[in-house]
Structure formats: C-alpha cells, structure tokens
Amino acid sequence: MVNILFSTFFIVFMCWCSQLSAHQHAPIKKERNLDTLCNIQKIACAKTVTVSAHPNGDLWRVWTHKNHMFYAVSHNQGAQFNKRVKIKGIDEPISSRGENRPKIAFGQNGFVYLSWAMPKEKKYTADIRFSYSKNNGLHFSKPITVNNDGLLTGHSFNEILVTENNQPIITWLDGRDKFKATLAGEKTNGSALYLAKGALNADGSMHFTNRQLANGTCVCCRIAMVQTGKDKVSIMWRHIFGDNIRDFSLLTYDFKDKNIINQNRVTFDDWYINGCPHQGAAIDIDDQQRLHLTWFNQGQKGKGLFYAYSDNLGQTRSHPVSIGNLSQQAMHANVKTNGKNVNLVWIEFNGKAHELWHQKSINSGASFLKPKIMARSKTGADRPFIISDGLGNHYVSWQRPKTGHWIEKL
Predict the structure, then answer these.
(1) Keywords, A to Z (predicted)?
(2) Does 158 have pLDDT greater than 90?
(3) Is the four-CA dihedral 146, 67, 220, 346 of positive or negative sign?
(4) pLDDT at residue 226 is higher than 60
(5) Measured at the alpha carbon of residue 115, what is the angle toward residues 110 and 118, in degrees to the nearest 5?
C-alpha cells in the first residue's frame, strides 16, 4: 500500500513538474499576465532565462524565441537591462526548457562563449552546439558541433565554464556509447558523461576534444560543474546504480593531465525509479576548498531537497540537511558561496502560486538561518539560480513565464 501511495504521489508530482517553466525586477505583488503578447521575443515569454556575469561585473541574460537567441546587458546590477540583441548567425532549433537550456560564459580577454543543445529530426536526439565572440558580443562565430561522433543520438544537458587560460570547458550527457552498444546487441542503461576542452586554431576558429568521464548516467537531469583548481573541475550528476537506483556521483577531473582524480557516490537516498526525474544537482566551492552540494531525491532513505558539504572532493560528506517544505513540493535548489556565507535558493508551490525561497549560512554550512520567501509567481516557475559576479556580489535569477524575469542582489 505504501508503494502504491508513493507511486501515485510521484506520478502527480512529476506531472506538476512537467508544467514548470519559469524576471522584470518588480515587487512581489505586481504580476502582469502577457498571454496575448507571447508570440514575440519578449523575455517575459521565454520559458527559461540564463544569467551570467561578465568579468567587469555586468550581468548578461540570454533567452530564446523559436530558432533564435537573444541577450541583454545590465550595467547597474540588474536594475535595468539594455535593449535586447538578436544574435546573428544562430537560426536553428534550441533546447530551452527546464533542465536543458542555453549557457553563456566569459573569458578574461573579451571572449563570450555560448553553448546549447540543438534538437535533431528524431525524438530525444540532439547535438551540442557552440559559438563565440571575440569582441564582447558584437559578432559571434558560425555555430559548430562540439560532440565529434556524428551520430543521430542524444547529446544534451550541457554546462560550460571558462578556465583562467580562457579555454571553454563543456560537459554534457551523451548517448553515443548506448547507441553503439544497442547496434551490437548489448544491453545498457542510461547515457554517458562527456567533457570537451576548446582550443583556438591558427585561423581563429575553435575545435574541441571529446572525452568520456563516466558511463551509466541518468539521461535527463542537469549536470553541475565547478572549477576546483587551476586545471581541475568537479562535476556532479545523477548516476544509475544497480537496478535503477538513481543517486548522485561526483568526480574531479584534471584536464591538463587528462586524469580522473577521484569519483565517489555522494548521495545514498536509494531512489528507485525506472525513468528520469528531471531533478539535477547544484555545486559550488568556497575559498577554503570546501564543496557545497544540493540535490533532490525521493528515495527509500531520503526524500526531498538536501544540502551537504565535502572537504575532500566527495570522498566523505557532511550529514545531509533537509531544505524547504516537502509537503509544498520544494525542489530545484541552487547554491553559491561568498567567504563563509552559503546561500541556498529553491522553489515551492503553496497550491496557488510558486514561491522562491532563500536560506543562508554564515558559518560555511555548519548551520543555517531561518528561510525567507523572496518572490512569488502565479504563472509558472523556471529553476532559480544564484549568480556570482566575481566582485563579491551575488544575485538571484528567476524566470516567471508570462510574468517576467526577476533578478535581485542578495
């Protein structure tokens, strides 16, 4: 009976999740419904919005409309954004929903990097695409495909960061190994985690290497990635253990020596589910090299949103702390650190509206202050994210479809 009740709850829960999609900077009570205007490229009509900070502290936001990508820049900490700019040369399908959205990152040399997944003609297939600007967004290069297999299979859920040497690092979930195994008559489960490092050619174009880091990943939960050293990244993803137990793993990769330093299972909630829950993790690192992790599970040993930290790249981990109100469907947490401050955000649903919640630790995650509501939305909710501008400022970004993009400094 318990299993039946849980299964029923989760089916209802997942149906609700599938309806989530997701800021004009405005008071909580002011919400404008734009149903009649959403046949144009207004940001309020976007399902997702991605925000990243330029090295000079400017905030850039990116969104899509049909086959096109747009960006706008704020020079005053998100209070106003300049007129939107349509990126020339990008005219193709772009995944822009939930866990799978375009990404933007910056080098220290005026380079702007874009990465996204381009759906192909067959369902559940896509390529990882890339374009860059050498002049702070005035012009972007012709898009190229990052995955080098040329197969009609899944390549999605991309993440990107830029190293101190201005090299873009892209990770994604890749279906090539399962594709090949299926052709060979072998049974496999899940996708694989791949990483690509970009390098400039003599003619100014960009090329990418491809490297498999792990096999047997959940196929549609977003990846979390953070740089944990000059030539190292740590990556957290939902992995398939045994017979469809879907918990999280974390590995650290040295992209200079091309070695996986370690790989560890970091959650033990034992969520048995024969499907993908569309619930990725989040990760950040503080100046004491402590990794801060958030995740969602509905397992036999743990249900809901959780936070924990690790001082040894995931080999061991603190006891998980429950986040939010499970009865109000708390989900999609994000984490960012600033010295000893650890900020968490997530969303809940109170039966009438989505709520954006914030909770803070001032002692590196040892304990947390009382959580507070930051904003509400009656028109749906995208995932919330915390953005660091590298200058000591942090911002919460939350897209509310048909209401607008909400952004606020913490």
Answers:
(1) Signal
(2) yes
(3) positive
(4) yes
(5) 150
Other Cβ atoms within 10 Å of 213 Cβ, number? 18
Encoded tokens for 377: 């939305």
Mean pLDDT of the chain: 92
Question: What topology is assigned to 39-217 in CATH?
Answer: Neuraminidase (2.120.10)
The strands making up 50-53's β-sheet, listed across from edge to edge, are: 50-53, 59-65, 68-74, 85-86
C-alpha closest to that of 343 among 382, 298, 296, 397: 397
pLDDT confidence of residue 2: 41
Work out the average pLDDT over 158-185.
Answer: 96
Q: Where are the domains of the chain?
A: 39-217
Q: What is the pLDDT of residue 40?
A: 76
The tens digit of pLDDT for each residue in 296-311 reads: 999 999 999 999 999 9
Q: Are 182 and 162 in contact (CB under 8 A)?
A: no
Closest Cα partner for 44 from 59, 28, 31?
Answer: 31
Measured over the CA atoms of residue 199, residue 203, residue 205 and residue 210, the dihedral's sign is: negative
Q: What pLDDT, on the 0 to 100 scale, is given for residue 204?
A: 85
Look at strands 372-377 and 354-361 and give their pairing.
antiparallel
46: its two tokens: 């976007």
Q: Strand 206-208 and strand 259-265: pairing?
A: unpaired
pLDDT of residue 363: 98
- Cα angle 121, 213, 210; round to 5: 55
